[in-house]
Amino acid sequence: MADNSRNDRDMMSDRPEISRLIATKQCQGGYLNQAALAGLNLSGADLRGAQLLFANLSRTNLQNALLSGCQLSFANLVHADLTAAILQGVQAKGSNLLEAKLDRANLAGANLTFSSLVNCNLFAADLQGANLFGANLIRVNLEKANSVGANFQGANLQEAKMTGANLSYADLRDVNLVGADLSDADLTGANLRNANLLNANLTGATLLDTDFTSANLVGVKLDGAIGVTRSPSIAAKEKSLSPKEENEENEGNRASRGNGRQPKEAKFHRQDLHTSAIGRV
């Protein structure tokens, strides 16, 4: 019974790598798989290239820590503080980062496929070229984050805050962006094929050469968006026109064209959103 009551700190002392990490905050390339490191103060620690597969780092302080090239797949990082940490090229597939703090963290080239980042704070984080395929990012804060060329395919970004984020050339195919705030975001060249943008906010967003093929754009806010025009059907929705009134407005537009005048809205082929460079809709 006494053996079963040993606390985590006693258990950690059985592993020299963990003891060294606690004493010196140095464990480059160390073998820390399944290590119990919950709640420790490891701010500024050097863990570059360490193996932390299935490690428990919940509520651990890793502010400004060096974690480049770490193996963090399936690790528990719930409520961990990784503010301004360096995580370039980490392997964190299937990791749990629920409500973790990653503001200003460097995650360039990181592999976060199928990870959970629900309510995670990634304010001004660097996610250039990161792979978040299938990740759960519900209500994540990506405000002002740099996600150029990142892969979000199939991710859940429902109600995500992405104000001012740079998502140029990002892969957002099949993404759930229901109720997401993308105001003032840069989506130049981004791929949003089959994405669900129901009631999303794209106010002031840059949408040059953005691909919305087969995307759900019902209720999307586009005020002040750059590189986009709206169809008469969206205008009708905004004015709450009845189908009869909308048809009358369309007839009026056709009459205007016959008189040499241009209607206010551009012509659309199939969808309600049209980007200026190629018009892939």
What does this structure look like?
With 281 residues, the chain is low in regular secondary structure. Helix content is 14%, strand content 2%. The chain starts with 7 loop residues before the first helix and ends in a 6-residue tail after the last strand. The relative contact order is 0.07.
Beta strand %: under 5%
Q: How many distinct beta strands? A: 2
Strand order in the sheet with the most strands: 1-2
Shape from CA axes? Answer: elongated
Query: Structural class, from secondary structure content?
Result: little secondary structure
Order of helices and strands: HHEHHE
Helix content: 10-25%
The CA-CA distance between the termini, in Å, is: 67 Å
Mind describing the biggest β-sheet?
Answer: 2 strands, antiparallel
What is the count of DSSP helices, taking H or I runs of 4+ residues? 4
Could you write a compact summary of the structure shown?
The protein has helices at residues 8-12, 16-24, 232-239, 243-258; strands spanning 228-230, 273-275. The chain is largely without helices or strands and 281 residues long.
Keywords:
single chain; 281 residues; little secondary structure; two-stranded antiparallel sheet; 4 helices; elongated; disordered N terminus; disordered C terminus
Secondary structure: elements and pairs:
Blueprint: H1 8-12, H2 16-24, E1 228-230, H3 232-239, H4 243-258, E2 273-275
Antiparallel strand pairs: 1-2
